[in-house]
Amino acid sequence: MRELLADALEVFDRHSGWIIWNLFLAFIPLVLSFWLFRRRSISRTWFWWIIYVIFIAFLPNAPYLLTDIIHLIRATRAGYSVWIITLIFIPLHLFAILSGLEAYVVSLINQNHYLRKEGAKQYIFLSEIMTHLLCAIGVFMGRFRRFNSWDLVTQPDVVLSKTLDDLTTKKPLLVIFITFIAITISYTLMKQVTFGLMLQFRRLYLGLDELDPEEIIKR
């Protein structure tokens, strides 16, 4: 048992130490989305726009956790006990990845709620696509160029030049496109799961039946 626990700690330190930090970064835009889009009275002041820019800058951290599947692959090939991999490592990583994706989904649901509230329902799909694209670029810059969200402030010139270089090069463009497709598909699937869970909750605990997704968002 002592050896098993020692292996578990080694696995976490070597392959899972990123989880707490990455989840923290992923939940920053989630928290900001409630302040930006879910308050009863929202005025788009200069302060609101500053928070919105911060929201956009940190939002790629949520779908970024999808790429952390590489840590799962590396650990399964590292020769650890099957019990460690099955009972600790896989559940832990899946939890982190799904939590990051759910934070992304709820953030965009809140944004969609705001657009609907402002009478801009027709722009919801376009805003989702543009957000997926921006996040795909952000994920690529974070995973392969190792930039952080705050680098937009600390070294904006470097981030801009590197981004422009990658957007005009075939291989980075291909990776960004694949990432965009992965984010779009994952978001679409998880969004339906989220709506289903919300609907089930309202039926069981609030006694509300036959609500469509738009009504779920409004309430």
Automatic annotation (TrEMBL):
<feature type="transmembrane region" description="Helical">
    <location>
        <begin position="172"/>
        <end position="190"/>
    </location>
</feature>
<dbReference type="Pfam" id="PF07099">
    <property type="entry name" value="DUF1361"/>
</dbReference>
<keyword id="KW-0472">Membrane</keyword>
<keyword id="KW-1133">Transmembrane helix</keyword>
<feature type="transmembrane region" description="Helical">
    <location>
        <begin position="46"/>
        <end position="66"/>
    </location>
</feature>
<feature type="transmembrane region" description="Helical">
    <location>
        <begin position="122"/>
        <end position="142"/>
    </location>
</feature>
<feature type="transmembrane region" description="Helical">
    <location>
        <begin position="18"/>
        <end position="37"/>
    </location>
</feature>
<protein>
    <recommendedName>
        <fullName>DUF1361 domain-containing protein</fullName>
    </recommendedName>
</protein>
<keyword id="KW-0812">Transmembrane</keyword>
<feature type="transmembrane region" description="Helical">
    <location>
        <begin position="78"/>
        <end position="101"/>
    </location>
</feature>
<dbReference type="InterPro" id="IPR009793">
    <property type="entry name" value="DUF1361"/>
</dbReference>
